[in-house]
Amino acid sequence: MSQNAIELRGLKKTYAATKKTEAKTALSGIDLDIPRGSIFGLLGPNGAGKSTLINILAGLVKKSAGSVNIWGFDQDENPRQSRAAIGVMPQELNLDPFFTPGASLDMQAGLYGVPKALRKTDEILRLIGLEDKANAYARSLSGGMRRRLLLGKALVHSPQILVLDEPTAGVDIGLRQMLWDNVRQLNADGMTVILTTHYLEEAQEMCDQIAIIHEGALRALDTTANLLSKLDTKTLVVETESAAEISLPAGVTQSQRADGTLAFTYSRSAISPGEILDALRLAGVKILDIQTEQPDLQDVFLDITK
Fold first, then answer.
1. DSSP 8-state assignment for residue 19
2. Level-2 CATH architecture, domain 231-295
3. Cβ distance 42 to 202 under 8 Å?
4. pTM for this one?
């Protein structure tokens, strides 16, 4: 059996022209392997094609070309099995306001054909922290509770793969931490997790590997550590006692931040921080404090999608 949870080959999607819109290519030939047991980040700006890709995986959108293999099942040959292997927590709050959380989970499990004796409604309610709200109408739940219920609905059929589409959009810090604790536990139990998010610091902290999609094409695919190491820039932040005219080495750019500190951005493969500090001392600048800043995932993202 393949070591990949998902394998995509030449995946394309073109939306046909309408009276009001021209034909649009959302995905232009994606080749992508997502390893089993990983937490995988799927990133890209708005309109990049992420939602189209997720909807194809979930069986909600029909691809134009290519192949989709989910947990060893070809989507064309075994659509039912491939769809059962994946659970999607959508970005939209699509809940029936007149159903209780317990009833919502039971109904969702029934739609997936899970027998009553095998349903894990109480267990899932405990996992998502809604055990005490099992009999409350969904319309009475807070926004954060509703988002937790969406996670529960994605888990009712015990999928091997969990897709989280912007799971922390508009939620508070406490809920965000609870969600990530749940995700880490599910992943530790063997579940493959695919995450899309605009909070790039979350992706940097959570994901083993990251794919960046832009304009329907795969622009980057690597481990998080390797992506971060590809940017050569680094910043030296210096707190000084007084300003002075500084003659900096070629290739170093200087800026002053709102707090008065000086930021020197340089290529770490060409210049050492010691050269910058030597230039400061030569200019008679008294240094009070020093710190360095490494590039983060946001820098990588902007560099790829600019």
1. S
2. 2-Layer Sandwich (3.30)
3. no
4. 0.83
